[in-house]
Amino acid sequence: MIKAVLSITGDVQGAGYRSYLIMAARKLGLEGYVENLPNGVVNVVCESEKERIEEFVSKIKIKSEIVEVENIKVKYDKPTGEFKGKGFVIKVEESFKGLIQEMFQGYATSEKYFRVGWGKQDRMLGKQDRMLEKQDKMLEKQDATIEVIGTRFDKTDEKYGDISKTMREMHNDLKEMKNLFAKLVNHIVKE
């Protein structure tokens, strides 16, 4: 068992980072606390086996749109047992001032997530606009193709119009011949 004090610098406050630290610490069985310091540093004081603390340190080195850890300084010391059975928590000043600071952190975190979400939405809308532009170009090409096909059918009618007329006349002649043949057969059968 060993005690560790971690000083984490970067864009780590107003980002929901302490909640992430709590989840990671609890999964590894660390006991202690995390707190925001006025200078922008996130401070962690915990006790556990050294290997677990080292694993914790490797898990909390995050670089994302919300949190960007620049540096983690780790100082080891002898364990005191002061956290035994207390789990891993957020340490806050137990006063009205502490409550206001926590509310501010919550609002700052929300604002950051909204800003990232709006940025993603703007990028998505940009992609959608480009897709619609491509769709418009495709429709223009489709209209041009339909126009070309239409003129080709007009030319086909011009070119094969006489053949079509002749075929229609032949069809009518055949129908007339069939009727005449039927009359002839009826006349022969009656006599």
Q: Calculate Rg over CA atoms.
A: 41 Å
The average pLDDT score comes to 85
Helix and strand composition category: alpha+beta
How much beta, percentage-wise?
15-25%
Helix-strand sequence:
EHEEHEEH
The end-to-end distance, rounded to whole angstroms, is 127 Å
Q: Low-confidence stretches at least 5 residues in length (pLDDT < 50)?
A: none
Number of strands: 5
Number of helices: 3
Overall spatial form: rod-shaped
Percent of residues in helices comes to 55-70%
Strand line-up of the largest beta sheet: 4-1-3-2-5
CATH architectural designation of the domain at 2-91: 2-Layer Sandwich
**Major sheet attributes:** 5 strands, mixed
Structure write-up:
The chain is of the alpha+beta class. The protein has a domain at 2-91: Alpha-Beta Plaits (2-Layer Sandwich), CATH 3.30.70. The chain contains three helices and five strands. The protein has helices at 17-28, 50-59, 96-190, and strands spanning 2-11, 31-36, 42-48, 68-77, 88-90. The protein has a five-stranded mixed sheet. A hairpin with a 5-residue loop joins strand 2 and strand 3 (42-48). The chain is rod-shaped, with a radius of gyration of 41 Å. The model has no long low-confidence stretch (mean pLDDT 85).
